[in-house]
Design goal:
Layout lengths: L1 H21 L4 E6 L2 E6 H26 L1 H29 L3 H20 L7 H18 L3 H15 L8 H14 L3 H9 L3 H4 L2 H13 L3 H13 L5 H17 L4 H10 L2 H4 L2 H13 L4 H14 L6 H16 L7 H13 L4 H13 L3 H11 L6 H17 L3 H13 L1
Antiparallel strand pairs: 1-2
Length: about 425
């Protein structure tokens, strides 16, 4: 359709030109004394058109002739630019394929081309970024080859190039790479030093938080690792189950690293509410507090949420451990047990009269209150049902003590023998 329209337009122009030229009787007279020249108007118009075309072609030819050096320069720049991009692609390809020597050589070729272009004044618009990437890839290859001196040389060049305004956005990447190299070199202090130089926004990125977490774990800085793990879990860098497990493990490690009651209280205060409510964490904290001669009332306060939820979220081992912690806390003080805890234990034992752990704990409390008969009955009921050897042994020892108080030597001896067998 378009061709048909052009053909019709061409015919129209031809017809109009023929009508104009056929009926045009005008002449153009040129006076050049003493001469006179008469020319047809059609010939003059045709000559002017030919002159215009000739001048136009001549000017185009001269422009092309004078632009040959610029075209040659542009071609050289284009060739070098293609060589640079091809070299970067080769570097990345060799690097991901594990050919680190080839990757380093390809990156160094890119750097050499860039240096030559910079010396000749033909630098590309993104020259700083290209040089930064080339040096960084060369440093990565040298790091894989364990050539630290060459890695540091390329890294310093990359950092210097990244400091310029043209490549400022790459500086964070260079510093993150340096932190990762320091971690792989087991230099946690160096990794932390590089991470601390990052801007606030970059330091909150997932990759920076992962590096901070690894550096803290490597330096055994449990508190910093715990903070990083919390943020990573919120950012969904870990799955919910994995994140909870990591946080729980770090919380337990921080509690175990406390050497006195003050450090333990400080570590407990640094935990979040959800972490304090985890059974393993609360049990470990209370057990450690009793182990360092801390306040038994504080230990019972820490495990109070577990006592209120036992039977719902505690396993059998955790209930056994909770029972042992409460027993130890009640025996650590010479004063009578707390009335509130007495009421709690009594209510729980009455609600579940067949629970051996509650029977044992109630029996221990009766021993503390000098209720010998009730204590003996509860302990005897609990012993056949107790599955934990430690609790069973302590229950038998308590029966032996009660028998000695009654001056029943035979019963005490039998209890001691049973405890020894347990």
């Amino acid at each position: 359709m378009r061709f048909a329209l052009w053909l019709i337009a061409l015919f129209c122009v031809a017809v109009v030109s023929a009508l104009f030229a056929g009926n045009n009787h005008g002449t153009v007279t040129l006076f050049w004394p003493p001469h006179r020249i008469d020319l047809s108007l059609n010939l003059v118009l045709l000559g002017l058109a030919l002159l215009f075309v000739t001048l136009h072609l001549a000017l185009r030819a001269l422009s092309g002739l004078f632009s040959i050096p610029q075209q040659a320069r542009r071609w050289r720049l284009s060739y070098k630019e293609r060589s640079i991009y091809s070299g970067l692609l080769d570097t990345i390809s060799h690097l991901v394929a594990g050919r680190f020597v080839r990757a380093r050589k390809a990156a160094e070729v890119v750097v050499a081309i860039e240096d030559a272009m910079l010396a000749s004044g033909d630098a590309l618009p993104d020259a700083a970024r290209l040089r930064t990437l080339a040096h960084l890839l060369a440093a990565e290859s040298a790091h894989a080859l364990q050539d630290r001196s060459l890695r540091e040389a390329h890294f310093e060049n990359a950092l210097a190039e990244a400091s310029s305004k043209e490549a400022g956005d790459l500086r964070d990447g260079v510093q993150l790479r340096a932190a990762r190299w320091a971690l792989e070199d087991r230099d946690s202090a160096g990794a932390v030093r590089w991470l601390e130089q990052l801007p606030v926004g970059t330091a909150r990125r997932t990759i920076a938080l992962r590096l901070r977490f690894k550096a803290a774990r490597q330096a055994r800085n449990t508190r910093v690792a715990l903070d990083a793990a919390r943020v990573l879990t919120k950012h969904r860098a870990f799955s919910e189950v994995a994140g909870a497990g990591i946080v729980r493990g770090l919380a337990l490690e921080m509690l175990r690293n406390a050497h006195d009651a003050a450090q333990l209280s400080q570590a407990w205060a640094s935990l979040e509410l959800s972490e304090r409510q985890q059974p393993d964490v609360a049990l470990e904290a209370a057990q450690r507090l009793l182990g360092v001669q801390g306040d038994p009332a504080v230990a019972r306060l820490w495990v109070l949420p577990l006592w209120e939820s036992q039977g719902h979220s505690l396993t059998t081992d955790q209930r056994v451990r909770l029972t042992g912690i409460l027993e130890t806390s009640f025996g650590a003080s010479e004063a009578l047990p707390d009335a509130a805890w007495l009421a709690r234990i009594e209510q729980a034992q009455m609600a579940l009269p067949g629970d051996p752990l509650l029977q044992y704990l109630a029996g221990v409390m009766c021993v503390r209150l000098s209720l010998w008969g009730k204590a003996q009955a509860l302990l005897k009921q609990s012993i056949p049902l107790l599955k934990d050897a430690g609790l069973k042994r302590r229950a038998l020892l308590a029966l032996a003590d009660l028998a000695e108080h009654r001056m029943d030597t035979k019963a005490a001896a039998e209890a001691y023998k049973a405890a020894a067998r347990a």
